[in-house]
Amino acid sequence: MSTFKQNVCEAIGNTPIVKLNRVTAGIESEIYVKLDYMNPGGSVKDRIGKYIVEKAIERGDLKPGGTIIEGTSGNTGVGLAMYAAIYGYKTIFVLPDKQSIEKINNLRAFGAKVIVTPTNVEPDDPRSYYSVSRRLAETTPNSFYANQYYNLDNQDAHFHSTGPEIFEQTEGNFDVFLCGVGTGGTISGTGKYLKSVMPNVKIVGVDPVGSILEPFFRTKKIVEAHSYVIEGIGEDIFPGNLDFSIIDDMVVVEDKESFLMTRALLTKEGLYAGGSSGSAVVGAIKYAQKLKEPKRILVLLPDSGNRYTGKIYNDDWMRDNGYWDNSFNATIREVLSALDKGSLPAVKLMKEYNVSQIPVYRGSKLIGMVSESKLLRPLFESQISLNDNITIGLENNFILVDSNDLLEKVANALLNKTTVLVTTGEDVTAILTDIDILNYMATHRPF
Q1: CA-CA distance, 136 to 144, in Å (whole number)?
Q2: For residue 108, what pLDDT is reported?
């Protein structure tokens, strides 16, 4: 075998660059994305995990059999854990509790000890993930604190890796490099290298609403941090790796628009990226919209979507947290006035006979039920359309009872919201509902 890597860490880097098309429709500037989530550990942080540990070994800060300790939003932990797995180090990671369960489980799968701390506490609070990780490093024998926020090897890793790689891939044929800002290592190290070989390049950072970084960049005033849901970018501290002198501009993004863009990157571009990648693309579009002339913008997508299957890519989570974009902008008055102007055949039948559910037959065979409640959500979320075959909305949560059976036979079914179809002979002649039982009891039973 002539082409192979000695281990997985040697596969870090050389991630591809692709052009965005559908999500940037109407934008004059060309927007390209570097898919750094295609690193073997699933994020841009693979680069610093390897570099930081190797430098620590060179300096003698990390000795054989030692323990690597880090406060992380998850991705740096994976980069460090991957290296530790190959070379036999132990790992302890401290994560704030807003991080996805997938990130926590990923780290535990490596054999790491994972400690989860509160998110909404001050940075110097002894419960914060900064404080806990620092304290663990001070009290754990033969340990090394990676300290990605203040260890300048973070920034250097990108100066020696990400920056040169981008320049080699593009030959400098772009105008703007844009990425999210967290520890500051990616934007500062990459930006510093790019400016050394491309004096006219603009470096733009993306920051979530609630972070203190963009307000300070813009006004040089320190503001109070507020909570936000986006993971991996934004800060309530000023990291030592963040060099504001490298940054030419910053863009602010919100949780909802970031998450909707994250999903759009998958459904419209086929890019299975994480939430901060959605933030970066939203930021790039906002930046492009204020330009006086079109530019070529290169955006770094930092991590993979597989860390967010329980959140951003979970319909229920998106809806429950108010992020779902259902595009229903009609007023109640418009809905009411349109009620008599046509409808689905199934809905027309429900309306005509004043029922909320109807049986569906194929020939003489009963194949299921259609109900208002089961049609509403799929239509609301655009999972089905008005022209789809009725069978796509079928449910089978029903029982058949003979009209001569006693009511007690269906009591449990009604209590469990099971549909009760009443048969006379071989034909279904009625649907028995809980309101029918209430009406009967109100008029036929003394109280």
Answers
A1: 10
A2: 94
Domain ranges in the chain are 8-39+161-320, 45-145, 332-444
For 8-39+161-320, CATH number?
Answer: 3.40.50.1100
Active site members: 45
Does this model's pTM top 0.90?
no
Asked if domains 8-39+161-320 and 45-145 share a fold, the reply is yes
- Name which residue leads in pLDDT, 99 or 188: 188
CA atoms within 13 A on the CB side of 42: 19
Q: For 286-317, how does the pLDDT look when each residue is reduced to its tens digit (9 = 90+)?
A: 999 999 999 999 999 999 999 999 999 998 89
Cα dist. 410→186, 221, 294, 295, 398 in Å? Answer: 64, 68, 68, 68, 11
> Token pair of 343, please?
């409808």
At 222, is the pLDDT very low, low, confident or very high (cuts 50, 70, 90)? very high
* Residue 251 confidence (pLDDT) above 80: yes
Higher pLDDT, 419 or 41: 41
DSSP state, 249? E
- What is the second-level CATH architecture of the domain 45-145? 3-Layer(aba) Sandwich (3.40)
CB proximity list for 166: less than 8 A, separation 6 or greater? 17, 34, 177, 190, 194, 298
Strands 202-208 and 176-180: parallel
Second CATH level (architecture) for the domain 332-444: Roll (3.10)
